């Protein structure tokens, strides 16, 4: 390694001493607004491309409706949440859904090996609720400060403008938490047959809050009534030779013939808390909650029954954000969720404009019409509904302005305490464990396709990256690593002699204590503070 490399800095010229973690209150606590390094990085990243989306540029969309069962599993939904959209039965809540690929440009093929975006806008009587996720239930990274680095590594080379396997695996080789997602994406699950026959997930951990102010951790999932179907590399190449927009065509053809796609909306629930009994942190979005311990509980159903009238006006200008929640659904301290909540809406204000929520596709339904004191800005279409006195665009006011909504009888108040700092997650055991379990759960043809794809990638990587990836795969599952090594002509024994990654506890191990990224434990920090 070249020791003369220049030091990474912010745009202000400040040296970046930690590019791995946001500052949080305690290891599992919320991120703070003074994360300047992260804010500068993510807001610049949000503005890297115009006019198409930086990620999720290729997409198709449809209108539909959601109907709640009024239950979560066999229990009343009100036990867990006061959100009307999940409690009221016999109501068809309007919805707008956008499916997408992640890395490719707007005209890239829909056969690309890539996670599929699954973004849903519920237009409820209490305002919009956006659920933004993907088809694989997990993600590559667990801290939002790494998102621009991850996407840069996966996007085309800035010099050659070609996607290169070595760039992808250079990043992944130093980021073991990504192994689980890599195992999914490089298998047939990385190429869904179409949008109708794929699962969806909110990916991040949220909270449900009931009328007593009691919270539960929750994961949201969409299960297709059409079943799940994926493609091998060979099958995808055959389709791509004839059609680059096959998934959009399939979706719109189904709607035209009245074969409306339908999904069942399900949740996984656990009590609010750290759950130290688990090998993984339930706030870690690179991990799945085991369904034998946390079963999928039906909540309602979604049906898509209408195509957009105009692709640009609706599919392209539709805008989603993870911070768009309704009462009864709240944030957790999932570090990716905290970062996405800033990034998504910031992106929309830049890409579509500060008044993007005035566009019909994004505006709430009439029963939840916007009444704000926000004014003007580029492309203002109208003045938001205000109070009785048009001269008053501020709050509080005694002269006919808007007023705050009534507060709930019992609100949710999370207790937070801890040292402010940049933390490494303690529970890293499942960085390898869940990837190995996924490998062993695949059918033979899925494993064969996974290995073949990885073998081709390893042959395109420099030796040091390929050796480290074989080392990772072997620690996920010995057969997994051995097959990739043999197929790519890599010396397995040479790979296994590699040292541990710096600042990582090692495969299938957790850190012994809550630790800052400089290696200092919280206990050591406490002693230093006392001195």
What is the helix tally? 15
Strand segment count: 15
Enumerate the spans where pLDDT stays under 50 for 5 or more consecutive residues: none
Helix content: 25-40%
Structural class: alpha+beta
Ends apart, CA distance between termini:
38 Å
Largest sheet: 10 strands, antiparallel
Mean pLDDT: 92
Order of helices and strands: EHEEEHEEEHHHEEEHHEEHEHEHHHHHEH
How big a fraction of the residues is strand? 15-25%
Instruction: Return Rg in Å.
Output: 24 Å
- Overall geometric form: globular
Name its key features.
alpha+beta, single chain, ten-stranded antiparallel sheet, globular, three-stranded antiparallel sheet, 531 residues, 15 strands, 15 helices
How would you characterize this protein structure?
The protein has 531 residues and is an alpha+beta fold. Strands 2, 5, 6, 7, 8, 9, 10, 11, 12 and 13 form a 10-stranded antiparallel beta sheet that branches. A 3-stranded antiparallel beta sheet has the order 1-14-15, with no helix packed on it. Helix 1 crosses helix 9, helix 3 runs antiparallel to helix 4 and helix 12 packs antiparallel against helix 13. The chain is globular. The two termini are 38 Å apart.
Question: Could you give a quick summary of the protein structure above?
Answer:
By secondary structure, this protein is of the alpha+beta class. 28% of the residues lie in helices and 17% in strands.
């Amino acid at each position: 390694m070249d020791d003369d490399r220049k030091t990474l800095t912010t745009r202000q010229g400040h040296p970046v001493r930690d590019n791995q973690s946001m500052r949080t209150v305690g290891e599992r606590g919320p991120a703070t607004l003074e994360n300047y390094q992260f804010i500068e990085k993510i807001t610049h990243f949000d503005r890297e491309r115009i006019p198409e989306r930086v990620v999720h540029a290729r997409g198709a969309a449809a209108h539909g409706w959601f109907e709640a069962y009024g239950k979560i599993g066999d229990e009343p939904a009100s036990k867990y949440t006061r959100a009307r959209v999940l409690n009221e039965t016999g109501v068809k809540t309007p919805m707008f859904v956008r499916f997408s690929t992640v890395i490719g440009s707007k005209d890239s093929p829909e056969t690309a090996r890539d996670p599929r975006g699954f973004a849903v806008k519920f237009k409820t009587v209490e305002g919009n609720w956006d659920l933004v996720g993907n088809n694989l239930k997990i993600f590559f990274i667990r801290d939002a400060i790494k998102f621009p680095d991850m996407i840069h590594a996966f996007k085309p080379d800035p010099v050659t403008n070609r996607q290169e396997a070595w760039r992808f695996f250079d990043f992944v080789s130093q980021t073991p938490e990504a192994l689980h997602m890599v195992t999914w994406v490089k298998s047939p699950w990385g190429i869904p047959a179409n949008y109708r026959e794929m699962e969806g997930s909110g990916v991040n951990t949220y909270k449900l809050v009931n009328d007593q102010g009691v919270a539960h951790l929750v994961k949201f999932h969409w299960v297709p009534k059409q079943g799940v179907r994926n493609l091998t590399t060979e099958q995808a190449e055959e389709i791509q030779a004839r059609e680059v927009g096959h998934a959009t065509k399939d979706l719109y053809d189904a709607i035209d013939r009245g074969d409306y796609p339908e999904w069942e909306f399900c949740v996984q629930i656990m009590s609010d808390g750290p759950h130290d009994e688990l090998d993984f942190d339930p706030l870690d979005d690179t991990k799945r909650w085991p369904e034998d311990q946390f079963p999928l509980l039906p909540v309602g159903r979604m049906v898509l029954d209408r195509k957009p009238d105009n692709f640009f006006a609706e599919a392209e200008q539709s805008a989603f954000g993870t911070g768009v929640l309704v009462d009864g659904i709240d944030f957790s301290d999932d570090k990716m969720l905290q970062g996405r909540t800033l990034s998504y809406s910031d992106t929309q204000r830049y890409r579509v404009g500060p008044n993007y929520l005035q566009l019909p596709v994004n505006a709430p339904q009439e029963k939840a019409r916007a009444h704000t004191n926000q004014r003007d800005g580029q492309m203002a279409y109208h003045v938001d509904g205000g109070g009785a006195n048009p001269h008053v665009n501020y709050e509080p006011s005694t002269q006919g302005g808007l007023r705050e909504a009534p507060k709930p009888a019992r609100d949710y108040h999370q207790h937070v305490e801890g040292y402010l700092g940049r933390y490494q997650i303690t529970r890293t055991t499942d960085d390898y464990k869940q990837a190995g379990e996924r490998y062993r759960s695949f059918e033979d043809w899925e494993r064969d396709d996974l290995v073949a794809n990885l073998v081709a990638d390893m042959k395109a990587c420099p030796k040091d990256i390929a050796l480290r990836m074989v080392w990772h795969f072997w620690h996920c599952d010995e057969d997994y690593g051995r097959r990739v090594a043999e197929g790519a002509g890599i010396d397995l024994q040479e790979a296994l002699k590699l040292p541990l990654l710096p600042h990582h506890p090692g495969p299938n191990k957790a850190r012994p204590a809550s630790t800052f990224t400089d290696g200092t434990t919280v206990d050591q920090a406490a002693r230093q503070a006392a001195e």
